[in-house]
Amino acid sequence: xxxxxxxxxxxxxxxxxxxxxxxxxxxxxxxxxxxxxxxxxxxxxxxxxxxxxxxxxxxxxxxxxxxxxxxxxxxxxxxxxxxxxxxxxxxxxxxxxxxxxxxxxxxxxxxxxxxxxxxxxxxxxxxxxxxxxxxxxxxxxxxxxxxxxxxxxxxxxxxxxxxxxxxxxxxxxxxxxxxxxxxxxxxxxxxxxxxxxxxxxxxxxxxxxxxxxxxxxxxxxxxxxxxxxxxxxxxxxxxxxxxxxxxxxxxxxxxxxxxxxxx
Length: 263
Ligand SMILES: Nc1ncnc2c1ncn2[C@@H]1O[C@H](COP(=O)(O)OP(=O)(O)OP(=O)(O)O)[C@@H](O)[C@H]1O
Ligand SMILES: [Mg+2]
Known about the structure:
It is a single chain. This protein is an alpha/beta fold. The protein has a single domain (47-74, 84-262), classed as P-loop containing nucleotide triphosphate hydrolases (Rossmann fold), CATH 3.40.50. The chain has helices spanning 61-68, 91-100, 116-126, 133-146, 162-174, 192-209, 220-226, 244-248, 253-257, and strands spanning 2-3, 21-32, 35-46, 50-55, 76-81, 84-85, 101-104, 180-184, 212-216, 229-234, 237-242. The strands form two sheets. It has a seven-stranded mixed sheet with strand order 1-11-10-4-9-8-7, with helices on both faces. The chain has a four-stranded antiparallel sheet with strand order 3-2-5-6, covered by helices on one side. α3 crosses α4 (133-146) and α6 (192-209) runs parallel beside α7.
């Protein structure tokens, strides 16, 4: 893998917290039949860090995060979250793990038959098992306020625009205050201004909650805004790692292709 040397100048969003590793992946492999999707994935996510993964469609980005939350079982390799091997976890342990990980799916689906308020109450009552309605109200309003959607609290998802639905999905994921956030294409399908808002929101959330995040995106503006570090994935492996600015200057043709339109 092309590892771009650290510059001496400070990084833009350098985390100031202790460098504790929250996700450690070593030699991860995953195939579907004879299709070898993940060939050799090695990754470390540090506490408080925003890690962006770039890569062409179909390279296995979503498969990687589905392995992290135990939705898919890797064929080989080690995948530790908070020091515990995910492959060895039983159902109860997986459930506990998923309580600490917020997963914003590529589709970002909300429950269409529930209001935005009910959508946010759902993880609080079902996952955190909260019963105190006052406390639930407070958390729901705080989460909606964080994404600028407080006024939409009693609306149905169908009453909202695509960008608002995306923000509501983000609020629902964040309402349980996860330690790790996995974002699968958080800005896809949004206009450039809303995309920028979502990307800035991801950065604000990371700073405010000290969340560690993996952000999969094709949106270079999102990568520029949110990333402490960037990995480029190609054919089931990572081929380059560095800060956004470092990779921007890469001489590697595959890597620089991502930055073609960036000034
Ligand atoms: N459950 C599954 N069963 C069989 N094949 C799968 C499964 N999940 C993913 N794949 C295959 O694995 C490959 C990688 O898929 P993945 O969804 O990880 O791509 P991606 O990098 O996230 O792409 P995109 O940028 O389009 O979202 C694809 O060829 C896909 O068809
Ligand atoms: Mg995907």
